[in-house]
Structure formats: C-alpha cells, structure tokens
Amino acid sequence: LEQMQQGTLMRKVKSKSWKKQRFFKLQDDCMTIWYQSKRTGKTEQASPPSAPVSISDVETVREGHQSEVLQSLAEEFPPERCFTIVFYGRRGNLDLIAGSAEEAQCWVQGLRQLIEPRSFPLTFALISLTWIRDWFQKADKNKDGRMNFKEVQRLLKMMNVDMNEDHALRLFQDADKSESGTLEGEEFVLFYKALTQREEVLSLFQEFSEDGKKLTLLELVDFLRQEQLEDEGTEEMAMELIDKYEPSETARVRHVLSADGFLMYLCSPEHNTYLIEDQLRGQSSIEGYIRALKRGCRCLEVDCWDGPNGEPMVYHGHTFTSKIPFREVVSTLGKYAFKASDYPVILSLENHCSMEQQEVLAQQLKDILGEQLLTTTIDGHVPSHLPSPEELKHKSLLKGKKIGRLEDTLDGPGDEVPDVSDDDNGAEAEEERRRAKKDKETLAQALSDCVIYCKNVSFRGFQEARSHSRPSEISSLSEAKARKLIRDAGNEFVRHNAWQLTRIYPSGMRTDSSNYSPQEMWNAGCQIVALNFQTAGTEMDLCDGLFSQNGCCGYVLKPPFMRDEETLFNPSDPSSREGPGPITLTIQVISGQQLPKVANSKDGAIIDPLVRVEIHGVPADQAHQETKYIENNGFNPRWDETLQFQLHVPELALVRFVVEDYDKTSRNDFVGQFTLAFANIKPGYRHIHLLSKDGTSIPPSSLFVHIRITE
C-alpha cells in the first residue's frame, strides 16, 4: 500500500492504438486512487472515468489478458504486466499495463486487500479533521466553500461512508446552523463527526487508555484479554490489529491505537465471521434453484412430470403454474451446485414420469452432469456406513426409489429379481421380492441405477428400521409425523438418526409455502430438514444461522451425544445429555447504529426501536427477552440493558437478535435481525450487523453488545 501511495507510472489502455502513460497514486485515505497525465503533472479533469477511482466502486481485479483490449495487445505486452480493474454498475473497466511484473503484482494485491474489508462500514473511520477538510475542498466543485445535501451525499459516497439517507438528512439540517440549506467547511466537519461518533465506544476506549487519546500496545493487550477473553498470542494479535486498523501512519509506527483505529477494529469483520450472498432478485422458477444453491442449500426437491415432445418437466411448488424443462434444472445444478460450497448436493427426485420419460431423466442427468453425478459407491463396495461429505466433494447424489438392493447395482444389473440372503426369514424374503417386482414395473432401471447412497424407503417404525439397518437408505417424513415421533419416542428417534438419514418435508397443507420450525427437527438429529427457501421469516433465519457455522459449507457436524448409536439423549429431557451442567449467557444490549426505516411506515415516521433476543433450542431452552423501546431514535438508540438466559443444551442452541419498531396499537414492525449458533458466539464487545427480512445485509445498521458466557 505504501508503494501505491508513492505512485506508479503505468499505461492506461482504451484500444489497441490508445495507450497512454499516466501516473497512478493511492491517496493517504486508502479509499481513492487519483491519476494524472505524465506531461503536465495536472490531475485529469476530463470525462468521468478519470474522476478519482473510489475503492468502494471496485468489484474485482483480474490479472493478465482478461479483457478484449488487453487480449488484442497480448503479442506486445506479457500477461504478468497486465491487469483490469472491474467496477460495479455501468462504469467501464480500467485496463492497465505496469512497467514490470512486480509493479503489477503490487497493485493487484494492494487493490484486493483494499476491497476485502469492504464488509465493515467505514462510517466509523473517524479520521483526522484535516483529512475531512481535504475531502471537502476536493468535492467543492465551484469553490464557494459551501455544499448542499445532494453534494454532501455524493461526497460521503466518495469517502466510502455508508449512511442511511433519512439519518443523514436530519443531521445535515442540525449542522446547518445558518439555515442556508448548505454546509460550510466547519459545519461539514460537525456534520461528519455527528454522523460517525460513538459515545459508548469512546468511553470504553477511555476506560483502558491512560491518557484518553491512545491505547498503547499493552493497554490493547489488556483489553483483548479482559474483555474479549482472548488468551493466546495476544501481543502478536494486538500488533496485527494496529497494523490493520490504525488509519494514522504515525500511530502505526509507534504501535499505538487511536480512538479511530479502535472503532474500526470493533466494527470489523474480525468479530463478524459470516458472509451472506446477495440474493438474486429473479422471477423465473429456475431463479429459485440458483438462489437456494448460492445460499448454500445442499438438498433440492425436484418434482418431475411427463412433458410434451418426450421432454420431462419440473413443476415448481404447489401452484402447477410455472413449469420448466428438467434439463434446465439439471444444467443449473451443474453450474451452481458448488459455487457456495464444495460439498455434495442431493437431488431429491419426486418422480411422476412414465417409463419412457424416466429413461430421458436418467440420460439427461448423465449427459449434463457427467463426472459430477455419483453413479457408484466411492470404493465399489457395499457400504457399512455412509461416506463423509469430504469424500463426496463436487458430487451430486440422486435420492429416489431404487429396484432391489444396492448390492445388485454393484454386481451389475440382472433380469432376475434379487436373491435374498439366508439370514432373512421367509416371510420377509417374500416381501422384499414382491416389492422389487412391483418397483420393476414402475421404475426405469437406468434411473434406479443412478440412486446410490440415498434410496427412498418407507418408514415402518424404529424396530423394523433397526433390524434392516442399511446406511444407504433414507426415509422422508412429513413435519406432523416427525413431531409425533419426537413426542412419543424422542430418544429412539435420536438413535435412529445416529445411523440413518431422515428427511423432513413441509406438510401438504402449506399451499402458501409457509415454513415450520426446523429447530425441533434438528433437536432430534434429523439431517435434512426441507424448508421453502423462497419464504422469508424466522424459520429461514434459523436455517441461515445454523449453517453460517463451518464456513457456510452446508454441512454441520452433530454434537457427540447425537452421533452415538447408544445415546440416552432425549430432546424433551435435557438431563439426558451427558456433559457439564447448564451455561449462563449474559447479553448486555448497549446501542444501535443507523437502523433502517420500516418499509411500509406511514409518512416516513422515525422508529421506536426495541431489541429482542431469542433462544431457539431444546424445549427447556426456548426463551426470549426484550429491552424497553426508545422513542423516535433509529440513528443511535442506547438501551444499556442486560438480558440473561440459562442453556441446558448449548450445543443445539441458536441465538437470534431481532430489532422491531414498537407499536402500541398493532403488531410491532420488523426492522432487522441476525441469527447465529451459540457455538459461534464470541464473548466480549461485539457489533452485530443486521440483515433484512430476506437475509441480505443492510449496512451500516448494527447493534453493539457485550457478551459473557459462564458455566
């Protein structure tokens, strides 16, 4: 970055013939790049692309000849000197050729570093006042020393300061002491400070800082140990934090952290180890599959029916209105299955096709997915247990009916109905023969052969399942059936799920695509709990929360007491879990930052926010508590309230933070939420970055909390 701040001479390329030397320089704020023509030393004031490049507008950096223009120059300039800066939105790419491979690498790596931490709103960068004044002068186009609200908004965007327009306008009006509708230099400084200052963080900073102006390395180490409960390598960690978050060069050199740096650290992704894909806003049904896969979903239900011209079709949902060719769904699976995760995807086939079109289904799966489709066990032998997701990376598994047993597929298909081994008694052998014969009449062999580890079998009770235990079989149960089993035989259900897969699906009565609570199914160890991904709400929040652990890979290991086939655990009796006693979770809800307005609020009223913390887990742990509401303040409400919870089975608990707009006459309105697994909670002072109803982020909205966990 320092090399970039000193500036580099590079060629800017627009076409094969237009390639001109320009001097590129990263500004001290590390948020913009200015460039000027070599000749005059003047900053280019020409057309928009030569406006300063704001780091917040950069989407990605591509190395080598990755644009048409650079490809056309491939003979002239080697790829290691070329790179392309790609912007969000409509702005054209910037193609550059550096003087050497080292210089190109310096800019490529530097830019990537700068766009990485984008996830923390730089609202909080309380950089020195001189820096703010410099910006003001740069943006004051007509040099009259004043700026109206539109210009101020543009300036904040250039400064990479996230803001909520309503809050910004109110603060603008407060800072406009002269009531001229514009801000002068000093008024702007006041406005900027008001927009970004955080009293509660400042007082925390002063608690640990002897002179109230900086944290020395040792003071920062004290904070990390006492408050954040970090106990290993804290000195190195403190050094790294200063290097990473301290905006002032002089402070960095002296290994101290200013209040600005402290705030940037507290708002950084170090605390917020989650990433959620922006959801595509599409209408076609194929979009639903793409969105679910990009969100990390690992099991898709595909409802197949005979279509015209011998092409099987997929009906989407209960409506039977939108239908798409099966081949399109499979191509989508091929393209998007492993975008969010490398781990296996299961295609749950609801097959209503004729024999002829089943042959087409099998052919399309093989042709389109190729190697990606699993067509035999990983070692060619009959499994005594299921392989781990690690062994099935980048594979798609078909779940569906199968003729006979897995053994028969491995021995090669024969016409005879499978033989039954001697240890089965006669009646059962007969039953198995009868079933295989019936399946042969309705199921195409080619499609049956694609089913390896997920053969659908009807659930006929835990005893029967146990006596015919086959790890490659899976039963699907409706939510109502599963609830009854949990109620009547909780422990047996947990044991069953220790050696066999169970899939739960929403009741057919839910024609509105609503969801049931997945938590009670997870409490019993059910592995595949199907939800309507397109329906936002608490249930999908819990799903995102549970699977945000383990790197969002779509698979989470069950706790040890649910993987033991002899376990005594029963979700309705927490004392059945072996291990330490209950845990106390104490959450101090301190403050909120720039909460969004409620979507359908009348006349853009300011919200009266309250925070509710919910625990979702075994029945004994289900609980929620809320703070009082703060009147008319969505900008920086302070609650300073402490909520406390007892958790008997913390391994299964999820914690959901919800912000609502209090309404005394009707239901409170939803403002934002964030859900995470208890196992992922870090103690100490943390910012919780809120998500909207559909799981997308809404920067810079956050909650500032302090968390303690005690046994």
Automatic annotation (TrEMBL):
Q: Which GO terms describe its cellular component?
A: endoplasmic reticulum; nucleus; plasma membrane
> In which residue ranges is the amino acid composition biased (Basic and acidic residues)?
431-440
Q: Which reaction does it catalyse?
A: a 1,2-diacyl-sn-glycero-3-phospho-(1D-myo-inositol) + H2O = 1D-myo-inositol 1-phosphate + a 1,2-diacyl-sn-glycerol + H(+); a 1,2-diacyl-sn-glycero-3-phospho-(1D-myo-inositol-4,5-bisphosphate) + H2O = 1D-myo-inositol 1,4,5-trisphosphate + a 1,2-diacyl-sn-glycerol + H(+)
Q: Segment Disordered: which positions?
A: 405-440
Work out whether the entry's keyword set contains Metal-binding: yes
GO MF annotations in UniProt: calcium ion binding; phosphatidylinositol phospholipase C activity; phosphatidylinositol-4,5-bisphosphate phospholipase C activity
* Segments of skewed composition (Acidic residues): 409-430
UniProtKB keywords:
Calcium, Cytoplasm, Endoplasmic reticulum, Hydrolase, Lipid degradation, Lipid metabolism, Membrane, Metal-binding, Nucleus, Repeat, Transducer
Q: Give any single GO term for biological process.
A: intracellular signal transduction
Q: How does it sit in the membrane?
A: Peripheral membrane protein
Q: Where in the cell is it found?
A: Cytoplasm; Endoplasmic reticulum; Membrane; Nucleus
**What are its cofactors?**
Ca(2+)
Ranges for the EF-hand domain?
127-162, 163-198
Does the keyword field hold Endoplasmic reticulum? Answer: yes
Which CDD domains would you find in this protein's record? C2_PLC_like, EFh_PI-PLCdelta4, PH_PLC_delta
Look up the domain of life of the source. Eukaryota
Which segments constitute the C2 domain?
A: 563-692
Tell me its EC number(s), please. 3.1.4.11
The UniProt entry, under InterPro entries, shows: C2_dom (IPR000008), C2_domain_sf (IPR035892), EF-hand-dom_pair (IPR011992), EF_Hand_1_Ca_BS (IPR018247), EF_hand_dom (IPR002048), PH-like_dom_sf (IPR011993), PH_domain (IPR001849), PI-PLC_fam (IPR001192)
Which parts of the sequence belong to the PH domain?
2-116
The segment(s) forming the PI-PLC Y-box domain are 447-563
- Under which name does UniProt file this protein? Phosphoinositide phospholipase C
